[in-house]
Write a structure and sequence with these properties.
The protein is built from eleven helices and 23 strands. A hairpin with a 6-residue loop joins strand 3 and strand 4. The chain folds into two domains: 351 residues, LCP protein (Aminopeptidase), CATH 3.40.630.190; 96 residues. By secondary structure, it is α/β, with parallel strands linked by helices. The protein has an eight-stranded mixed sheet with strand order 1-14-9-2-3-4-15-23, with helices on both faces. The chain has a five-stranded mixed sheet with strand order 19-18-22-20-21, with helices on one face. The chain is globular, with a radius of gyration of 23 Å. It starts with 14 loop residues before the first helix and ends in a 16-residue tail after the last strand.
Length: 503
């Protein structure tokens, strides 16, 4: 993604070369799944944040990828999205944050349609890396939007071979390990990236860079691997800036060639010019204003090999992204620009946020189903008994005579109102009227394909009272400790090595 800005160097190379680079770029559908998340409204200055999903595919569908990734038996199978990161660039373009979600995190994957085959996949609850097999990168994007409430503008995807090309084009990136490391198969633990390094700092490029990015066992877990990837990305940004790569036209052409050959992108940014425009938005962010994090997780109570979001911490982190609050303390956050202490951004704005469209139907005629989800998405808490009945009663008292409590539970970490996608603008207006009646923010109103009526799901964030509790906007830099943040200017970061993989 950082290399997108380097396309600038090809501008003087002539039209034919420009067209050649355009032809290099593979493209796909932006969104191939069901998601009711809407784009954030501009702030007072007319600016909007930029959100881009980065995907690392484990595809073995080429000789090069089989050679680099092994597992010849997987050739021809649909790839998994083993690396997933959201890049958030603030509306004022002064700060950026990156959030990883570990590949084995169990989430709801929405109904998706494969844009190539037309095959439809029903909604499922599975680990997030499976989303790529159920409708391509556009399904992974829809999964992220539903999980986070964040509108994602674009996606970019790279496979094993692409990582090697880009790592070679950069010329090497410095990484660090505290002990000698050899990520190899051990008795009872197959696999391993093959990474073998002496303790200390060293530049890695090509295949060795891929090994660093793929190493999991030697860094103890997917969480350790995500941290190693963050260190690599931080180091790459510093390397490009220190080498003046942005102004060396000869170097730029090589980097541009590697980038356009290596990336697959969502179709709306599938030209050199659009990638360049995108890169220019990133170039202005100072290194010290980049913050790398991982979504807080806890072990899945149903499968010790999987993870689920750590409800309170993950919700806080995503609210900072939705409200455009910087992850670092170096700037002002929130849509009103008051250090993250003011009004929320539109993604979680109050229910009377301005909107256009039809008026809601009279309350007494609207069917509303209320679901008790107070156990939370990770089911870590006991559900609050009779919660759906209490809120249904409160809605009835506000004129929604047809509000009823569902006998089925629907555990959810976040309260939300959903409505049938087929009902369009009228359905949204009706759902917003329900949200307003009990104080649920408009950013928590979604359209879903499988809904048959307006549904209010009471999450674990609303365990008492009949009015949704007012949510405070975190201050700039107020990240939960479990997000494991690394600042882009930190040159001293060094990975500890899990003892069995030291040599």
């Amino acid at each position: 993604m950082i290399l997108a800005v380097l396309i600038l160097g090809t501008a003087g190379a002539g039209y034919l070369y420009y067209r050649h680079l355009n032809d290099n770029i593979a493209k796909g559908k932006r969104n191939s799944g069901e998601s009711g998340v809407e784009k954030t409204d501009p702030n007072a200055d007319g600016q909007t944040p930029l959100n881009i999903l980065l995907i690392g595919s484990d595809s073995r569908n080429s000789d090069e990828n089989v050679k680099l990734g092994g597992s010849k038996d997987q050739r021809g199978s649909k790839p998994l999205a083993d690396v997933q990161m959201l890049v958030h660039v603030s509306a004022d373009r002064k700060s950026a944050s990156i959030v990883s979600i570990p590949r084995d995190t169990r989430v709801k994957i929405p109904k998706c349609e494969d844009p190539d085959s037309g095959e439809t996949y029903p909604e499922t609850n599975n680990i997030i890396n499976m989303s790529l097999q159920r409708g391509g990168a556009g399904c992974t994007l829809a999964t992220w939007q539903n999980l986070t409430g964040v509108y994602i503008d674009h996606w970019m995807m790279v496979d094993f071979g692409g990582v090697v090309k880009m790592a070679d084009a950069v010329g090497g990136v410095e990484v660090c390990v505290r002990q000698n490391v050899w990520d190899r198969p051990l008795p009872g633990v197959p696999g391993g990236s093959g990474l073998k390094l002496k303790a200390g700092s060293k530049k890695v490029k090509g295949k060795q860079a891929l090994q660093w990015l793929r190493t999991r066992h030697a860094f103890e877990s997917d969480l350790g691997r995500a941290k190693a990837q963050h260190m690599y990305m931080n180091s790459m940004i510093r390397t490009l800036k220190s080498q003046n790569a942005f102004t060396d036209s000869g170097r730029l052409m090589g980097l541009a060639e590697a980038a356009t050959e290596s990336l697959e992108v969502s179709e709306e940014i599938g030209t050199v010019k659009k990638l360049y425009d995108l890169g220019m938005k990133l170039k202005t962010v100072p290194t010290e204003r980049f913050t790398m994090t991982t979504m807080p997780t806890v072990p899945d109570p149903y499968d010790a090999n999987h993870l689920v979001p750590k409800t309170t911490d993950a919700d806080k982190l995503w609210s900072m992204v939705r409200d455009d609050v910087p992850f670092d303390k170096g700037g002002k956050g929130g849509k009103d620009g008051k250090d993250g202490k003011g009004k929320s951004g539109s993604a979680s704005a109050g229910p009377d946020a301005s909107s256009t469209g039809p008026a809601a139907a009279p309350a007494e005629g609207l069917a509303v189903t209320v679901v008790n989800g107070t156990a939370g998405g990770d089911r870590a808490q006991a559900p609050v008994n009779n919660r759906a009945s209490a809120i249904a009663g409160a809605l009835q008292g506000k004129g929604f005579a047809k509000a009823t409590a569902s006998v089925e539970a629907g555990p959810s970490s976040r309260t939300q109102v959903t409505y049938p996608k087929s009902s369009g603008d009228q359905g949204r207006a009706n759902a917003l009227s329900v949200a307003k009646a009990v104080g649920v923010p408009s950013g928590q109103v979604r359209a879903t394909a499988d809904a048959v009526t307006t549904t209010l799901t009471i999450g674990s964030d609303w365990r008492e009272g009949t009015a949704y509790p007012k949510q405070s906007t975190p201050e700039a830099g107020d990240l939960p400790e479990s997000a494991d943040a690394i600042n882009g200017a930190d040159k001293g970061a060094c990975m500890p090595v899990y003892k069995p993989y030291r040599y």
